[in-house]
Amino acid sequence: MWIFHGADSSTRLWPTWTRWCVCYAAAALCVLCSPVRTHDACPASCACARDSGTVTCRDGGDSEVPGDVPDWTATLILVGRNISTLQRGAFMSNGTELDMTTLSLSYNGIRAIEPYAFLGLPRLHLLDLSHNQLESISARAFHGLPELRSLYLNDSLLPSAAAQLSNALSAQSLRNLHRLELAGNRLKSIPLVTLDSYNLHALVLVNNSIESIGWENVTNLYQLKRIRVYLSSNPFRCNCGLEAFYYWLKNSSQNISHNPLVHIHPSHFNNLPHLQSLALQGIDLPDIQIKMFLPMKNLSHIYFKKFQYCSYAPHVRSCKPNTDGISSFEDLLANKVLRVSVWVMAFITCFGNLFVIGMRSLIRAENNLHAACIKVLCCADCLMGVYLFFVGVFDVKFRGQYNRNALLWMESVECRTIGFLAMLSSEVSVLLLTYLTLEKFLVIVFPFSNLRPSKLQTGVVLASIWLLGFIIAAVPLMNEDVFGNYYGRNGVCFPLHSDRQEKPTAKGYSTGIFLGLNLVAFLVIFVSYSSMFCSIYRTGINATDLRSRLHRDVAVANRFFFIVFSDALCWIPIFLVKILSLLKVEIPGTISSWVVIFILPINSALNPILYTLTTSFFREQVEILLCRWQRRHMLKKDRKSLTSSTIYMEAPRAPSYQQPAYFKRVSLTSADPRYA
């Protein structure tokens, strides 16, 4: 209540009152003119999707958490914000709590988390702090998160923060934590003092430096019935210190894959009869044996690095990976295309070569020695068809239960025999093609030389080629200690590419055959046909009839091109696969299956066409045979028609011709003495 005493007092108070009114008016004007901002607006430099409740702030220059996060935010993603420190109450907007359930703070360069940094997020379910550089974590950093279910700290902890993590995770508010991920932090032990005080379902410790798991941690693991511990890529020491951990494994389902274990003793799993699932991904097992897994009677799921290992656990219901591209867990040939194609290729190869052998035997040959070489080549190629035929037969035999028989099949005499036949066919075919190419090269490039093989020389060369091919295919079978199971590396019994389990001698031998002998033979064929074409072209330049010369050159070029192209189509993919396997490049099994079923038999299937069916002489002889057959058929038909016509038109009558009596047989010397 204002009381004025006289005019002087009112005069003195008027300027003060005026100044106050002006200040209030200016303040009101500023408020009215300033931009209106509500709690529903999207923060600057952020992208908001209100329908899904997501706010994403990427690569901003701010070094603090946005303070104007909308009230409707359910998921907040902050990436690349250079937030060095998470301060107390960093997510409390004007002192109010948020209904946020997911918070991602990865790749922000966070170095320190202060106490109560996550206050105001009582309903947060997932917190991702991965890929930061944490140096300091307060013991009360995670207080105020009673609903937190998943905490990700992958690749975030420096040594100082790793030492503080155990205290930070002991907060009472983390009792509902279900999943804790601590991958890639170089931890040497499990950073939880008492695991039994948590409700963990999954503990991820992948790619750390854990060498052993102490008895105290194993004791805590016994208290958690549903927990799954992921321990991939840890340098475990295989010693007695892991005994308690292995005993715990017998009643659990765990993942110890991708660990650099050099050797697993055959009796390592003897005390795990109740184990139901075992993960060994990323672990090479060069000394794997079938007796390793037999004690685990209840094992239903097993996970290996390679499909070939599955054959050592035939009693397990499910094994992954379940295919190598060639075979699968159920079938020798993994898919229907391969199953059908193996029969088609076998039929084409066998029928084509047998047809050529038969036709070459019936038709008069222009060059008997060359024809003999072609028939021998067809015999070698026919063996490839026999190989494919038996692969198809055993695929049908093992249909639906291949893994139970895989190991027995790959170590069987049958597998080694058909592998031997495939190698014999391949090498004899390569050597014969090289010999035929060189023979043709001498005839065309040096037409006036006397370098023509005789019948004896040709026979010796053919016998030598078969003997050399037999030796090449048989050597790996002579000493299993040196070569191992050379042909039983996969379900189709052909040693196409190398793996870690292959013995060094076998790897060197295979490399010498495919990248030595076969590569040299292919280069000889390529260079020889190129030289032959150049020689024919130079010879034809002086021809008077330009049109006939062009037709002849085009025909020769086409023929030579397809011969070289078929060889390249067959061998270049095989060379590439072999080189990549030597460079330890991972080759998909699907490629290997297509190479074995389609590419390897290409030469065997096309050789009859290229060397017989497309030659002009063979076509002429076939046309002559067809004309003769057609003429005989027409004559026989006409004779039959004439006979039936005569019988129909003439009535039967008594024979008027009396057959003369036979003369007495007299020798030439008794009839005429001059011949005595």
UniProtKB/TrEMBL annotation:
| Entry coiled-coil feature ranges | none
Task: Tell me the compartments it is located in.
Answer: Cell membrane
Question: What biological-process GO terms show up in the record?
Answer: adenylate cyclase-activating G protein-coupled receptor signaling pathway; hormone-mediated signaling pathway
Q: Which Pfam families match?
A: 7tm_1, LRR_5, LRR_8
PROSITE patterns in the record: G_PROTEIN_RECEP_F1_2, LRR
Primary localization class, coarse: membrane
Q: Which residues form the G-protein coupled receptors family 1 profile domain?
A: 352-611
InterPro entries assigned to the protein according to its UniProt record, in alphabetical order: GPCR_Rhodpsn (IPR000276), GPCR_Rhodpsn_7TM (IPR017452), Leu-rich_rpt (IPR001611), Leu-rich_rpt_typical-subtyp (IPR003591), LRR_5 (IPR026906), LRR_dom_sf (IPR032675), Relaxin_rcpt (IPR008112)
Spans traversing the lipid bilayer:
337-357, 369-390, 459-478, 513-539, 560-579, 591-611
Entry membrane topology: Multi-pass membrane protein
Q: GO cellular component annotations, sorted alphabetically? A: plasma membrane
For this entry, the protein name equals G-protein coupled receptors family 1 profile domain-containing protein
Give the lineage.
Eukaryota, Metazoa, Chordata, Craniata, Vertebrata
Gene name of the record:
rxfp2a
